[in-house]
Structure formats: structure tokens, C-alpha cells
Amino acid sequence: MNLMERAKSPTPKFFRVLRTIGLALATAGGALIAAPVAIPAAVITVAGYLTVAGSVMTAVSQITVDGESDEKQNSNDG
């Protein structure tokens, strides 16, 4: 299964929730980084970590597939 097939395959419910949380973290971090007011350097640093962590969580959750659906698809092919 290549990367595009994995991205289009059904995602388990747990990983859909994680994907949503990751999107929220990345958005919050991005909003803090782009804030037009003066923010302490520590907050900017944490916002950068939030953005990276949220992006990675979202990417990993998106390419996780439901193994049962994959097995059903393979049994129908053969």
C-alpha cells in the first residue's frame, strides 16, 4: 500500500480524534507565533513546539489505516 492509498483509506475513530487535536494544537501555536502583540520569548518557543507537535500528530493520524478494512479489501482482491 503506497502513501496515497493510505491517505485515502478509512481512518479509525481514535486517530480521527487525535488528528483533530493535532490540528487544534498546530492552529493555536501558529496563532501565538503570528500574534501582533509583544509576547515573551518563552511563549513563542512553546508555540513553536505546539505547532510542530500538532503537525506531526496530524500527519501520523492521517496515514493510519483501519487494519480490518485493509484485510477485507485484500480478501476481495484474491
Give keywords:
78 residues, mainly alpha, 0% strand, elongated
N-end to C-end Cα span: 15 Å
- Count of β-strands: 0
H/I helix tally = 4
Contiguous runs where pLDDT drops below 50 for at least 5 residues: none
Rg to the nearest angstrom?
Answer: 17 Å
Could you describe the largest sheet, including whether it forms a barrel? none
Helix percentage: over 70%
What proportion of the residues form beta strands (DSSP E)?
under 5%
Structural class: mainly alpha
Order of helices and strands: HHHH
Q: What global shape is seen?
A: elongated
Name the average pLDDT: 85
Q: Would you write up a description of this structure?
A:
There is one protein chain. With 78 residues, the protein is mainly α. The protein has helices spanning 3-8, 13-33, 41-62, 67-77. Helix 2 (13-33) packs antiparallel against helix 3 (41-62). The chain starts with a helix and ends with a helix. 12% of the residues are buried. The model has no long low-confidence stretch (mean pLDDT 85).
